[in-house]
Amino acid sequence: MNTVLPLVEPAARSLELPDSAREGLATTPFGLYVHVPFCATRCGYCDFNTYTSDELGPGANRAEYAGTAIAELQRAARVLGPDLPTVSTVFVGGGTPTLLPAADLAAVLAETRRLFPVADDVEVTTEANPETVDRGYLTQLLEAGFTRVSLGMQSAAEHVLAVLDRRHTPGRAVEAAHEARAAGFEHVNLDLIYGTPGESDADWAASLDAVLASPVDHVSAYALIVEEGTRLARRIARGELPMPDDDVLADRYEQADATLRGAGFDWYEVSNWATSDSARCRHNELYWANANWWGIGPGAHSHIGGLRWWNVKHPAAYADRLAAGQSPHQDAELLDDADRALEAVMLGLRLREGLPLAHLSEAGRRRADDAVARGLLDPAAHAAGRAVLTDGGRLLADALVRELTD
């Protein structure tokens, strides 16, 4: 079972890594995640830890945020030292990171380079809402060392964007992708959401066509999840909108996969396609491999050698902790070997390469045999000792993970 650790000391609120978490620190892939919690408006489907300006009080404004994030970055270097891991990926997410000036994002990256050894081929990604960037802004990011841009497109249909409370116009994401390429970015991603109430087959086809008409080498496509407490969930509960239909979601996924694969994109994780191995998102692969990362920012989660912790959620509380010289973490837990093995299965099965059958329990291997018979796991890979999803298995990946790990 997970062990909840008493890592919050009333006098100092410090966070220390146990010896077990330090094992392999220098050799395990390591990444940094930087959470920027600001949004211009709140999208109706989103339950991320984000805030609009009128939801925040003193001490949590955008102008001060880069300095606050840098303060946690400095704390991370102190806790991880003296044998600091090499940073192989940096991912700036949100929220809308590109609501901050490009110079602020550049400052965080520059401090990362000052504090940590950084791989020569480091991948540095920022998420961006299409309406918050232009070629000049993107050029500044490229010059600062960013290597990858992930743009939130969601849909090419105006009425679908309206249901999602997205602000950009339907063609803006594709324009921004062209601007990123013109600025010099080799790696550009577009994010899509399918299954929004009111989305038709033709709407989804048009969204896929728009993606393929843009200069991207990576596409992420996610089924709409109705999260409790969101505006979308309340609208559905009132009967204003229908709940997404599972059969429609499956059809949309199959349509996306066929369209993208026909255009030279291969899936490498259930919801992600890339034109080549170099186009994959290495930061996300680090998560799926259950490697090490430190999450900077309010509500950010971290994982080092089986120790997992998460920060206080509100930006003002986060800033106050760091200003007082305290750790911003809220709580932590130490995973045992069984927990880590379970997570390896849950994450690994979603990957194109799958995972060794030896990682499953005896009961899990029996269920894997049954999954092969049902057409959900590839028989040739199974015979070679691996659990690899078939095309049909990807549609039921979450349910199959539960079967194999129960």
From TrEMBL:
Source organism, top-level taxon: Bacteria
SMART domains named in the record: Elp3 (SM00729)
Domain Radical SAM core: 24-266
Location(s), subcellular: Cytoplasm
The keyword Zinc belongs to this UniProt entry's keyword annotation: no
Transmembrane regions: none
Pfam families attached to this UniProt entry: HemN_C (PF06969), Radical_SAM (PF04055)
Keyword 4Fe-4S assigned: yes
UniProt entry keywords in alphabetical sequence: 4Fe-4S, Chaperone, Cytoplasm, Heme, Iron, Iron-sulfur, Metal-binding, S-adenosyl-L-methionine
Entry's family note: Belongs to the anaerobic coproporphyrinogen-III oxidase family. HemW subfamily.
Task performed by this protein: Probably acts as a heme chaperone, transferring heme to an unknown acceptor. Binds one molecule of heme per monomer, possibly covalently. Binds 1 [4Fe-4S] cluster. The cluster is coordinated with 3 cysteines and an exchangeable S-adenosyl-L-methionine.
Name this protein carries in UniProt: Heme chaperone HemW
